[in-house]
């Protein structure tokens, strides 16, 4: 893909990381979904029981299925349904990596305002991803 | 060639789903006589069509996905909105690199707005997940109907006139140059009314998180009509902005159990393939007709959400 000559260094670097992260995420998304629907690995929740859960509110689903919020899914990663969470988390995590990657560029350029913006954005996204913020009856 | 390859992957994927179904229980244990696998399959076909229409109608996939899937599929709104965010996020992630490299999307313009919108979308996501489904449906219905009005009334300006950049945008050095292929000219741009835009992005972020909508329908008018960014820069920066705004909200949904791979994955693949096909059709489609089809669909889906929330049309 051609890069416009007016585009700044941090924007090009951000774009490259975003491109790679998105491609890795999407390929893994398809692969893990194939594993899920073919039954190569067994799921935590039998697929035929999903309609019982997808009608519930999210917190009711967690309670009924005996699941925990936050990053507790990592313990179930060998189950095919939760293996799908790996690429989903990658898609959700790329932006954080992109921001971390451009931090030294802003620092090198002494662009302190945008360096601080990037730090705050990282903090916001990491807070959202941390699993600290719980909602509902659990 | 790429479309063919993607088509094969898709076909394979859903052939596998069918094969697996032969081994699985055919009926859902809950209540329905419809086998469970019918829903992901219909979801895939529906999101494929939505993907085509979204491109042709010039809207994001998320804004069509949430009201239509929420209104006509048996999934709880929590899962629909969780999937809607990942649909919008995936579309934005896929488009982002190209838009950034070509200089249509601008990182310096996006970053301050994204900061406000992503923080607000966390609050929106938490409100959305805490509210009862009927309240969410009423609010979603009203929002979608509002979007229809915006789509009907909002004018677009190819190159808005910005006489003087405001103090904040000057301090943040928000300006740029992009190469306009159609005219072969270098277009210089600057923006004004940045504080007002930042204020509006609080509301945009909250709505994006609360309803799981990509917020392009709101981003573009703010960037283009309020701030005075050229239309191409506005559309591209808006698309890129979604990748940041929706990331924070998507994590809240993921961490709170509102993400089911059986809903999210077919939706993402369906809408992305639909977008690829939509881009191909774009050259021959009549934009005005498609736009009215999309507005009609949104009107119907918005009314459905509102009436469902009010208990009138269950």
Overall average pLDDT of chain B: 87
How many separate structural domains of chain A? 1
Q: What is the alpha-carbon Rg of chain B in Å?
A: 20 Å
First and last CA, distance of chain B: 44 Å
N to C succession of SSEs of chain A: HHHHHH
Q: Structural class, from helix and strand content of chain A? A: mainly alpha
The chain pair with the largest interface is: A-B, 74 and 80 residues
Question: Unreliable runs of chain B, pLDDT <50, ≥5 residues?
Answer: 21-30
Total DSSP helices of chain A: 6
Shape of chain A: elongated
Distance N to C terminus of chain A: 47 Å
Strand content of chain A: under 5%
| Element string of chain B (H = helix, E = strand) | HHHHHHHEEHHHHH
Keywords (chain A): Membrane, Transmembrane, Transmembrane helix
Protein name (chain A): DUF1634 domain-containing protein
Transmembrane segments (chain A): 20-37, 82-100, 112-135
Keywords (chain B): Cell membrane, Membrane, Signal, Transmembrane, Transmembrane helix, Transport
Per-chain topology:
The complex is a heterodimer of chains A (138) and B (314).
Chain A: H1 9-38, H2 50-53, H3 58-65, H4 80-83, H5 85-108, H6 112-130
Helix pairs in contact in A: 1-5, 5-6
Chain B: H1 2-23, H2 38-57, H3 61-72, H4 77-101, H5 107-130, H6 133-153, H7 167-171, E1 175-180, E2 185-190, H8 194-211, H9 216-226, H10 231-255, H11 261-282, H12 287-309
Antiparallel strand pairs in B: 1-2
Helix pairs in contact in B: 1-11, 2-3, 2-11, 2-12, 3-4, 3-12, 4-10, 4-11, 5-8, 5-10, 6-12, 8-9, 8-10, 9-10
Description:
The complex is a heterodimer of chains A (138) and B (314). With 138 residues, chain A is mainly α. Chain A has one domain. Chain A contains six helices and no strands. Chain A has helices at 9-38, 50-53, 58-65, 80-83, 85-108, 112-130. Chain A is elongated, with a radius of gyration of 19 Å. In chain A, 40% of the residues are buried. By secondary structure, chain B is mainly α. Chain B has helices spanning 2-23, 38-57, 61-72, 77-101, 107-130, 133-153, 167-171, 194-211, 216-226, 231-255, 261-282, 287-309, and strands at residues 175-180, 185-190. In chain B, strands 1-2 form a two-stranded antiparallel ribbon. In chain B, a hairpin with a 4-residue loop joins strand 1 and strand 2 (185-190). Chain B is globular, with a radius of gyration of 20 Å. At the A-B interface, helix 1, helix 2, helix 3, helix 5 and helix 6 of A face helix 1, helix 4, helix 5, strand 1 and helix 10 of B.
């Amino acid at each position: 893909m051609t890069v416009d000559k007016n585009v700044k260094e941090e924007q090009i670097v951000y774009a490259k990381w975003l491109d790679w992260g998105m491609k890795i995420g999407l390929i893994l998304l398809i692969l893990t979904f194939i594993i899920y629907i073919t039954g190569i690995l067994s799921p935590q929740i039998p697929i035929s029981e999903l309609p019982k859960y997808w009608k519930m509110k999210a917190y009711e689903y967690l309670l009924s299925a005996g699941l925990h919020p936050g990053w507790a899914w990592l313990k179930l990663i060998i189950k095919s349904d939760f293996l799908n969470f790996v690429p989903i988390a990658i898609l959700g995590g790329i932006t954080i990596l992109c921001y971390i990657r451009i931090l030294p560029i802003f620092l090198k350029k002494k662009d302190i305002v945008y360096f601080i913006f990037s730090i705050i954005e990282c903090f916001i996204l990491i807070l959202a991803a941390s699993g600290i913020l719980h909602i509902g009856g659990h | 060639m790429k479309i063919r390859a993607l088509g094969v992957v898709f076909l394979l994927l859903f052939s596998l789903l069918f094969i697996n179904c032969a081994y699985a229980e055919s009926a859902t244990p809950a209540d329905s006589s419809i086998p469970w696998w019918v829903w992901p399959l219909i979801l895939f076909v529906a999101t494929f069509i939505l993907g085509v229409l979204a491109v042709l109608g010039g809207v994001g996939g998320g804004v069509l996905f949430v009201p239509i899937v929420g209104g006509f599929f048996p999934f709880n709104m929590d899962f629909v909105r969780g999937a809607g965010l990942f649909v919008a996020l995936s579309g934005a992630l896929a488009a982002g690199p190209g838009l950034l490299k070509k200089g249509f999307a601008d990182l310096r313009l996006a970053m301050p707005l994204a900061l406000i919108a992503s923080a607000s979308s966390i609050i929106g996501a938490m409100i959305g997940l805490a509210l009862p489904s009927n309240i969410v449906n009423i609010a979603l219905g009203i929002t979608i109907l509002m979007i229809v009005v915006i789509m009907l009334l909002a004018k677009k300006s190819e190159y808005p006139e910005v006489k003087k950049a405001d103090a904040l945008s000057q301090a943040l050095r928000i300006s740029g140059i992009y190469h306009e292929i159609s005219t072969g000219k270098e277009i210089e741009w600057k923006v004004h009314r940045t504080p007002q835009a930042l204020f509006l992005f609080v509301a945009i972020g909250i709505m994006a998180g609360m309803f799981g909508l990509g917020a392009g329908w709101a981003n573009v008018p703010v960037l283009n009509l309020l701030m005075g960014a050229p239309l191409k820069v506005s559309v591209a920066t808006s698309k890129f902005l979604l990748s940041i705004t929706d990331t924070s909200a998507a994590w809240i949904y993921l961490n709170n159990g509102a993400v089911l791979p059986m809903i999210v994955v077919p939706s993402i693949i369906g809408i992305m393939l639909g977008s690829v096909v939509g881009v191909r059709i774009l050259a021959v489609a009549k934009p005005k007709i498609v736009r009215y089809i999309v507005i009609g669909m949104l009107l119907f889906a918005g009314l459905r959400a509102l009436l469902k929330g009010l208990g009138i049309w269950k």
